[in-house]
Amino acid sequence: MLLSTAFAILLGTQVLPPGFVSTPGTRLQPAQPANSPQSFSLKDGDRIVWLGNTLVEREQRYGYWETALIAANADKNITVRNLGWSGDTVFGDARAGFDNAAKGYERTVSLTLELKPTVIFVNFGSNEAFEGKEGLPKFEKGLEKLLDSLKPANARVFLFSPIPVEKSTSLPDPKALNDKLALYSGAIKEIAEKRGLSLVDLFRDFQNIRSAGPFTDNGIHLTEAGYKQFTPFFTNSLAQPGTVVSEEKLEPLRQAIIAKNEQFFNKWRPQNETYLFGFRKHEQGKNAKEIVEFDPFIAKAEEEIAKIRKSLNK
What we know:
GO molecular function, one term: hydrolase activity, acting on ester bonds
Protein name: SGNH hydrolase-type esterase domain-containing protein
CATH architecture: 3-Layer(aba) Sandwich
Helix content: 40-55%
Order of helices and strands: HEEEHHEHEHEHEHHHHHHH
Number of domains: 1
Structural class: alpha/beta
Shape: globular
Number of helices: 13
Organism: Gemmata massiliana
Radius of gyration: 20 Å
Domain SGNH hydrolase-type esterase: 57-228
Strand content: 5-15%
Largest sheet: 5 strands, parallel
InterPro entries: Iah1-like, SGNH_hydro, SGNH_hydro_sf
Distance between the termini: 17 Å
CATH topology: Rossmann fold
CATH class: Alpha Beta
């Protein structure tokens, strides 16, 4: 049984995860979903860098998806570095700070390459989709440019489509925005096919959930319950193998991952960034040397993750 199936059972999902079929008297068997990343597999020593917007940044708070990914590969030493930034686009708009978008884009690329990833997850499109059909060519050009800029990493790149907007009686009908998201998801799919990259179609797969929500706080941004509920859909979108592991046994791993994410976040996005590296560094820039002091804490957190994941197969 796949790990995603285990999560579906443990987390109370009311329907089979997408891509699964069953026949009377048989165990669940994985069916190959369309556009599935058949070649996706993680190797021992892989370093994943996850680029994206709010969906990615918030995941580090809860760690459900990263936990599922690590647990499905418990026999491998894999690290994940979350570079998500709320409200961001392929142009680096949200990362600009007091600079222009070009600087934000430059930071996105330089930090990604600095981390020497072997795998890169690219998860954009939900913010750009508000521009509708008129903004699509600009988005396509921006995504192509970003992928070209990441080529020096020589990493395996996986494109993610955005998730759909949740329907709620207390919010406007999301059909118009979901139509735009479908358009942008289609563009991401075309770019993936053109470049020979795998597409992780969250837009398609996340529409298959049937449990009662809400799973977002505004129709767009997942709550903790949303990340938890969608875990089997995320893992199945990545076609990840694994074994049945109880939620109780996975919880220490999830907490260790959250602790690691917090330490890494504090390193790459310190609260006093403007004083350390920005236009006020003449006041407190001398303290920038302390940023590297987060490294031992990150390393210790990774050791704890490794210790726990190795115990999952025992």
